[in-house]
Write a structure and sequence with these properties.
The complex is a heterodimer.
Chain A (H helix, E strand, L loop, with lengths): L1 H6 L9 E3 L2 E3 L3 E3 L21 E3 L16 E4 L2 E4 L8 H14 L4 E5 L4 H11 L7 E5 L16 H14 L4 E4 L7 H11 L3 E4 L3 E3 L2 E2 L4 E2 L6 E4 L4 H14 L4 E4 L5 H10 L3 E4 L2 H4 L3 H16 L14
Parallel strand pairs in A: 3-4, 3-16, 4-7, 7-8, 8-9, 9-10, 10-15, 15-16
Antiparallel strand pairs in A: 1-2, 5-6, 6-14, 11-14, 12-13
Helix pairs in contact in A: 3-4, 4-5, 5-6, 6-7, 7-9
Chain B lengths: L1 E10 L2 E7 L10 E5 L10 E4 L2 E3 L5 E7 L3 H7 L6 E8 L11 E7 L7 H7 L3 E6 L16 E6 L6 E2 L6 H4 L5 E6 L2 H14 L2 E5 L15 E4 L2 E4 L6 E3 L11
Parallel strand pairs in B: 8-9, 8-12, 9-10, 10-11, 12-13
Antiparallel strand pairs in B: 1-2, 1-7, 2-6, 3-4, 3-7, 5-6, 13-16, 14-15
The chains are: A alpha/beta, B mainly beta.
The complex binds flavin-adenine dinucleotide, flavin mononucleotide and FE2/S2 (inorganic) cluster.
């Protein structure tokens, strides 16, 4: 037994996971807005080696996004204020999805809207479309009818969005939570009540960077969303908190650069993870994470990757 | 991973770095994204024009860069044999001139780096180079074998005194000229205005804050033809009349 532990495990390990009814090859996905429409990365890796690709957030109509500057680097991270620029759900289905289908990877559509109706309309359009495995609802989006306060910071609005999407689609639903809240447990319960099949977190943390010479924001907007390794410890803590409340699977996101980072999230309670900003640094990161998790499992004698989830010793 | 084969100063604050192996099929005006491996800060890659393509033994590329901050500061401290991570070539480069067209290149400072491969490919024309002083003008040295070089310095220590944009008009006087420009955005805007006034074809290579360099983060937006286009994947080279100069930052 001792020698087996030293040599690690021979033979196959099982990386597959079931996330709210989605059967995925492995727990590694790419985070929305950091992987384009997926196709752009086909030169760098075989996409079908990934658990799933989550595409750039889709709205009903195309959106132009914010003026530049839209990004600024900060210590171990970056701020962005892209402004949810996207080609719109119909152009995505018509122009991008056929190419993605050819790459034989599970595709999750990240969706958002300015009001509840827009969310449910986008979900309805995607329902039954061949090549979509699920939707991820981005609730970190300003609610135009409620004076621009994000849906994701108001539990009753968040529940309303999720239940509207639930009625509009038969696809598995992931609800992506904002970290910009006091108590994540309340949000978890709200979106579970709305009928979500899984939750993912965290989205970017609202943050600022100021040019002291000009006394202006370094972005065209006053604030932006912080991502990258700088947010990882916060994200791990929030995943752990969410896991303790949640009945549905939790997907961990935030600053994952390596397999070790991904494993940390899984131990905290994540059933799967998403790689975001790291895709910009090295377009092959997500594949490297898959391979690294597999090596870790062999080294630790773990047969099913799910055994890692929530294995934190307290 | 690419190995540094040389990394030496060429002008005040500017270095020339050779990297091997190189990258495949570079077009003039394309760029690479470089990262010093190991740390998480700075996190993002830094974009640099491909200055030159090296032949022989595994091939290679050269970049010419100016130290302006942390990333470039770290690059300047690297030595021969150190490794950096190179992604590319990326972006769309300069189109070649028409058969009978006169060629005028306008460069501001280290902006000249994005024009060098093009100058080598074309092999004739005029370079109007603007720098602060005669030492900056060393950046234009390699162009002397390729084309006519005219220097403008802010302190008048070499060539004509003033800003390069003051001399663009007389240079592109004739019809049937194509202008290629790279430098600070204020300079590019002036060059573009002059070219548009004269009805002369003009291409500019833009800069922008970049995270991915491959068109996926949507961070490097520039307003062109009424919509946001990406400097990294739709550019960095644009036709000057596509750009909405009013919407440009600084
Ligand atoms: C397509 C493209 C090609 C380029 N080619 C060259 C080249 O051949 N030679 C060269 O010296 N430089 C080039 N640049 C600019 C170069 O990328 C920046 O100077 C470099 O990223 C600064 O990194 P840093 O860490 O030293 O500076 P930082 O510490 O990040 O910043 C210092 C200053 O540089 C500015 N800056 C940072 N990143 C950029 C950027 N991507 N573009 C413009 N300004 C920036 C910041 O606003 C700040 O004022 C190019 C930029 C682009 C977009
Ligand atoms: C440039 C950029 C664009 C993003 N766009 C979206 C988006 O459209 N929808 C969304 O739900 N999240 C978006 N995100 C958030 C990421 O998916 C992710 O939740 C966040 O960046 C934290 O993970 P990371 O630190 O690994 O990047 C974006 C992030 C970045 C950096
Ligand atoms: S740098 Fe990411 S889109 Fe241009």
């Amino acid at each position: 037994m001792a020698s087996k532990k030293r040599d690690g495990m021979r033979g196959a390990v099982d990386l597959s996971v079931d996330i709210g009814g989605m059967r995925l090859k492995n727990p590694v996905m790419t985070a929305s807005g950091t992987f384009g429409y997926g196709i752009e990365f086909a030169d760098y890796m075989d996409l079908k080696g990934l658990g799933a690709v989550v595409v750039k957030g889709l709205s009903l109509k195309p959106r132009a996004g914010n003026p530049p500057p839209r990004i600024v680097e900060t210590p171990c991270g970056m701020l962005n204020s892209i402004g949810l620029q996207n080609i719109g759900v119909e152009a995505f289905v018509r122009d991008k999805l056929p190419l993605l289908r050819g790459l034989r990877v599970s595709v999750i559509a990240n969706i958002f809207g300015e009001d509840v109706d827009e969310y449910s309309e986008v979900a309805r359009i995607l329902d039954g479309v061949r090549g979509i495995s699920g939707v991820e609802i981005n609730i970190s989006c300003p609610n135009v009818k409620k004076g621009g306060i994000a849906f994701g910071t108001d539990p009753s609005e968040a529940r309303r969005v999720v239940s509207a999407v639930r009625k509009a689609t038969t696809l598995p639903i992931i609800t992506k939570l904002s970290p910009n809240v006091g108590d994540i447990g309340t949000m978890v319960r709200a979106v579970e009540d709305g009928g979500t099949d899984a939750i993912s977190l965290i989205n970017t943390i609202t943050a600022m960077a100021i040019d002291i010479e000009r006394k202006t924001s370094k972005l065209s907007q006053p604030t932006g969303g912080l991502s990258g390794p700088a947010i990882k410890p916060i994200a791990v803590r929030m995943v752990w908190e969410a896991y303790r409340t949640a009945r549905v699977p939790v997907i961990g996101i935030g600053g994952i650069m390596t397999a070790d980072d991904a494993i940390e999230f899984m131990i905290a309670g994540a059933a799967a993870i998403q790689v975001g900003t790291a895709n910009f640094v090295n377009p092959r990161t997500a594949m490297d994470v898959v391979e690294g998790i597999e090596r870790y499992m062999k080294r630790h004698g773990i047969r099913k990757v799910g055994e890692l989830t929530g294995s934190l010793k307290v | 991973m690419a190995r540094i084969v040389h990394n030496y100063p060429v002008a005040p604050g500017c270095y020339r770095m050779g990297l091997s192996p190189g990258v495949d099929r570079v077009e003039p005006g394309q760029f690479v994204m470089i990262r010093i491996p190991g740390g998480l800060d700075p996190l993002l890659r830094r974009p640099f024009s491909v200055y030159n393509v090296l032949r022989g033994r595994g091939g290679g590329i050269e970049i010419v860069y100016k130290v302006v901050g942390r990333g470039t500061g770290m690059m300047a401290s690297l030595g021969v044999g150190d490794e950096v991570d190179v992604l590319g070539p990326l972006g769309r480069g300069f189109p070649m001139p028409g058969k009978k067209e006169r060629v005028v290149m306008v460069a501001g400072g280290v902006g000249v780096a994005s024009l060098h491969l093009l100058a080598k490919r074309i092999g004739y024309g005029t370079l109007l180079f603007g720098g602060r002083n005669r030492r900056d003008a060393r950046l234009a040295g390699d162009f002397r074998d390729l084309m006519e070089v005219k220097i403008v310095t802010e302190d008048g220590s070499m060539g004509r005194k003033g800003f390069v944009t003051e001399f663009v008009e007389e240079e592109i006087g004739e019809e049937g000229t194509v202008v290629y420009a790279c430098g600070p955005s204020a300079m590019l805007e002036k060059v573009s205005c002059i070219a548009m006034d004269r009805g002369v074809r003009c291409y500019v290579s833009l800069e922008g804050m970049m995270a991915c360099g491959m068109g996926v983060c949507l961070g490097c937006a520039v307003k062109a033809d009424g919509a946001y286009r990406m400097v990294c994947s739709d550019g960095p080279v644009f036709r000057c009349d596509e750009i909405d100069w009013q919407g440009m930052d600084g």
